[in-house]
Write a structure and sequence with these properties.
The protein has 354 residues and is α+β, with helices and mostly antiparallel strands. The chain folds into two domains: 209 residues, Orthogonal Bundle (Endonuclease III, domain 1); 128 residues, Nucleoside Triphosphate Pyrophosphohydrolase, CATH 3.90.79.10. The protein is 44% helix and 14% strand. It contains 16 helices and seven strands. Strands 1, 2, 3, 4, 5, 6 and 7 form a seven-stranded mixed sheet that branches. The termini are far apart.
C-alpha cells in the first residue's frame, strides 16, 4: 500500500512552493507552511507564504519583528492566533534553542501553537523522522480506506486514526508518505464525489467496496451557523476617519476597525449607506453595513479598557491591520464607482494618497 501511494505521489503531486528541495531542507519553512495550511485552502496560502518569506525569510527575522508587523503580514488569512503563536514560538526558539527549531517531539510540543499534527509534519517532512500525522484529509482517507464508521472527531476516533497512521508511516521517506496521504485527500479522496477510479488505493478501500464513500467519514453534527448584522460608521473629520483598536486578547484582539453605534460622545450625521460586506468568523455569518457619517463634534470615549481611538489618514488605513470584515469595507469603497464624485469618499482619499 505504501509503495503504491508513493509512486502515485511522485507522478501526480502538485508543484507547490513549500515542496521545493530548499523548502524541505528548512524546518522553518516547513513549519510556516503547515501552520498556514491549517484551516486554509492551498490556493489562498500560496501568495501569503511567498510574501511571508520575503518579509520574514528566517526564524530570527520573525523573532525580531514587531507584533503589529506579524499581524499585518497575516492580515486576511484568518485564525490570527496562528500568527501570534508563530511569533511567540520563534522568540522562544531564539531564546531557548539557539535559533534552531528543535528536532524532538517534547521540545516542539513545548512551543506555542504546536500540537500533535504540527509535530508530525515538522519531524517527518523536515527531519525525515518516522512520525505520523493526521489532519482532515488524512482522516478522510483513513476512514474510507479502513471503513471506520465511528465519529473521527471523537476521542476514540482520533485515537484509532493516529494508531493507524503510526502503523502505516514507513521508515523510508516518512515525510513523502505523510504528504502523499494529505495530497490524496485533497485532490482525489475529496469530501464529495471522490474520484475513486483515479485512486491508487482503490483496491484496498473498504468504503468503496461496501458503498460507504458518501457516508464516510463520520464527523458528527456540525454546529449551526449564526447570522449576525452589524453597522460600521465612517466618521470623517479634516481628511481623517475615526477608527478604534480592539482590546488585546480574544479572537480579534489588537485589530483595528470602524466604530459601531457605541459612540455617545461623538456627534455625526446619520449618514448614508455606502457599502455592505459579508464575512465569516468561526460559525458566525456577518453582514456589515457601512455608513458615511461626516463629523459634527465631540471626541470618542471608551468605557471598555484597552480600546484605543485614532483619527486615521488614508495611509494609516493601508498600514494598520484591520479585521477581515472592515478590510473588505475599505476595499469595497475604494473600488466603488458610485462614490468617486464625493470629496469625502474613501476611494478618492486613498487614490490621492498613492
Amino acid at each position: 500500500m505504501q509503495k503504491q501511494l508513493l509512486r502515485w505521489f511522485d507522478r501526480h503531486a502538485r508543484k507547490l512552493p513549500w515542496r521545493s528541495q530548499a523548502a524541505r531542507r528548512d524546518p522553518y519553512r516547513v513549519w510556516v507552511s503547515e501552520i498556514m495550511l491549517q484551516q486554509t485552502q492551498v490556493a489562498t496560502v500560496i501568495p501569503y507564504y511567498r510574501r511571508w518569506l520575503r518579509r520574514f525569510p528566517n526564524l530570527r527575522a520573525l523573532a525580531g519583528a514587531k507584533p503589529a508587523a506579524v499581524l499585518k503580514a497575516w492580515e486576511g488569512l484568518g485564525y490570527y492566533s496562528r500568527a501570534r503563536n508563530l511569533h511567540a514560538a520563534a522568540r522562544e526558539v531564539v531564546q531557548c534553542h539557539g535559533g534552531r527549531l528543535p528536532a524532538t517531539r517534547d521540545d516542539l510540543l513545548g512551543l506555542p501553537g504546536i500540537g500533535r499534527y504540527t509535530v508530525g509534519a515538522i519531524l517527518s517532512l523536515a527531519f525525515d523522522q518516522q512520525e505520523p500525522l493526521v489532519d482532515g484529509n488524512v482522516a478522510r482517507v483513513l476512514a474510507r480506506l479502513f471503513g471506520i464508521r465511528q465519529n473521527v472527531k471523537s476521542g476514540a476516533g482520533q485515537a484509532r486514526l493516529w494508531k493507524l497512521a503510526g502503523a502505516l508511516v514507513p521508515a523510508k521517506r516518512p515525510g513523502a508518505f505523510n504528504e502523499s496521504l494529505m495530497e490524496l485527500g485533497a485532490i482525489v479522496c475529496s469530501p464529495q464525489n471522490p474520484r475513486c477510479d483515479a485512486c491508487p488505493l482503490n483496491r484496498f478501500c473498504v468504503a468503496l467496496r461496501r458503498g460507504w464513500t458518501e457516508q464516510l467519514p463520520n464527523t458528527g453534527k456540525r454546529p449551526k451557523s449564526r447570522a449576525v448584522r452589524q453597522r460600521a460608521l465612517l466618521i470623517w473629520r479634516d481628511g481623517r476617519v475615526l477608527v478604534r483598536r480592539r482590546p488585546a486578547g480574544g479572537l480579534l484582539g489588537g485589530f483595528w476597525e470602524f466604530p459601531g453605534d457605541e459612540l455617545s460622545a461623538v456627534r455625526h450625521d446619520a449618514g448614508r449607506r455606502v457599502a455592505v460586506v459579508r464575512h465569516g468568523v468561526m460559525n458566525d455569518r456577518l453582514t456589515v453595513e457601512a455608513f458615511d457619517c461626516p463629523w459634527r463634534g465631540g471626541e470618542p470615549s471608551a468605557k471598555d479598557k484597552g480600546i484605543r481611538w485614532r483619527w486615521a489618514t488614508p495611509s494609516d488605513l493601508k498600514r494598520l491591520t484591520f479585521t477581515g470584515a472592515h478590510r473588505k469595507i475599505i476595499r469595497s469603497l475604494s473600488d466603488s464607482r458610485s462614490a468617486r464624485s464625493r470629496t469625502t469618499n474613501l476611494e478618492s482619499r486613498i487614490t490621492a494618497d498613492t
